[in-house]
UniProtKB/TrEMBL annotation:
Highest taxon of source: Bacteria
Statement: the UniProt record of this protein carries the keyword Ribosomal protein: no
Stretch list, region Disordered: 1-20
Pfam families in alphabetical order: Arabinose_bd, HTH_18
Protein name as catalogued: Transcriptional regulator
GO MF terms held by the record: DNA-binding transcription factor activity; transcription cis-regulatory region binding
PANTHER family xref list: HTH-TYPE TRANSCRIPTIONAL REGULATOR GADX, HTH-TYPE TRANSCRIPTIONAL REGULATOR VQSM
Classification via InterPro entries: AraC-type_N, Homeodomain-like_sf, HTH_AraC
Gene Ontology CC: cytosol
Gene3D superfamilies: Homeodomain-like (1.10.10.60)
Residues in HTH araC/xylS-type domain copies: 259-357
Lineage: Bacteria, Pseudomonadati, Pseudomonadota, Gammaproteobacteria, Oceanospirillales
Length: 361
């Protein structure tokens, strides 16, 4: 039910939630599967307002909010409980960007995990991987857990299925052992509603699966961790690690100022109109330094302001009953007409049409 009013005290801090960014290759994995399922990709991109032109650049970073919106559109279009699971069968080395090539040149599964996972941010901010040493029915091993950072309840289970099943599928390819399987799988999602759907889980994972668990995890024995991979190259591995570290340093440095500036801008806009000078003051730097740092991150103050305004406007329109005038004021527009014009430019629809679409009235 829409909220009648959003006060400064009651406004959720997570609205809109920062989902970070994603690289292009993992998005293409979902699109490749969707195309094979007969989904009209062009329509899905348009309906989700996804910046399709960025898909032509493998080095581009996509806003997490855009990726999540696209996934939601694909999930609702295909109407399959197993969409995420099905996408795992389209994984390839490039799906993990440089991480895929690092793992290809490791000696064992254990080394691949140790070498590649520190760079998983290069793939995207969709989630984080954690490891825990455990005992598996008398065997030593690890519990490998993935924690999803995305927020939409329809998207999360499909993304989890994709990640865990992609790991298993890719590991089989790396080791050239299609029969290999984890000792056990845990999933937080409930047991599928029909046997056919559940059977697909068993066909892909080929191990005991427990639904409704406290985490999304793979249990891997020490014997499986020591399994040799097919094409280890220590010299190439070293070069790839150096390349990955350079990319990570650049990404972290670039995103650091963008993330800090975005968060600061959101805080400023809770109590006063946005101004570049006020943002620079909040960050403890000069306006010129702010401009230079944002340019180095391939961004700008106006781009950040537009993104924050767009995300906030979409939240207010979808989940509140604030008037257009109040929303315009919250976002620092001089009048409703300016807000209306800007929103249509961002979203290719009017604020009223967007609210009607999201609230269904």
């Amino acid at each position: 039910m829409p909220i009648d009013k959003v006060s400064e005290q009651n406004k959720p801090e997570s609205a809109p939630h920062n989902l970070g960014t994603a690289s292009v290759p993992p998005i293409l994995q979902y699109l490749d599967c969707s195309k094979a399922m007969g989904i009209d990709i062009k329509s899905a991109l348009i309906n989700s307002r996804f910046p399709a032109h960025l898909l032509e650049d493998d080095t581009a970073r996509i806003q997490g909010t855009d990726f999540q919106a696209l996934l939601l559109e694909l999930i609702r279009t295909c109407k399959s409980e197993n969409f995420g699971l099905s996408t795992s069968q389209y994984v390839q080395p490039a799906s993990y960007v440089v991480l895929g090539y690092i793992s290809m040149n490791c000696r064992t599964v254990k080394e691949a995990l140790e070498k590649a996972m520190p760079y998983e941010k290069l793939v995207g901010d969709m989630g984080v991987t954690e490891f825990e040493d455990i005992d598996i029915g008398g065997k030593t091993g690890i519990k490998m857990t993935w924690k999803c950072n995305y927020t939409h309840p329809e998207v999360i289970p499909h993304m989890v299925d994709n990640v865990l099943a992609s790991w298993v599928t890719y590991c089989r390819w790396l080791s050239n052992r299609p029969e290999q399987a984890p000792e056990e799988i845990w999933l937080t999602r409930e047991k599928p509603s029909n046997q056919e759907t559940e059977q697909q889980y068993r066909e892909i994972f080929r191990c005991p699966i427990k639904f409704g668990q406290p985490s999304n995890s793979l249990f891997i024995s020490q014997q499986q961790l020591e399994m040799p991979l097919r094409r280890a190259d220590p010299l190439l591995l070293q070069t790839l690690e150096q390349h990955a570290q350079t990319q990570l340093n650049e990404l972290t440095s670039d995103q650091d100022i963008v993330i800090k500036a975005t968060r600061a801008l959101k805080e400023i806009m809770k109590s006063e109109p946005p101004r570049k000078e006020r943002l620079a003051e909040t960050l403890g730097i000069s306006g010129r330094t702010l401009q230079r740092k944002l340019q180095a991150a391939d961004s700008s103050y106006q781009e950040l302001l537009d993104q924050v305004r767009k995300e906030s406007a979409e939240y207010y329109l979808a989940y509140t009953q604030l008037s257009m005038g109040d929303i315009a004021s919250h976002l620092g527009f001089s009048d409703t007409r300016s807000f209306h014009r800007s929103f249509k430019l961002w979203s290719n629809t009017t604020p009223g049409e967007f609210r009607q679409l999201k609230q269904g009235s």
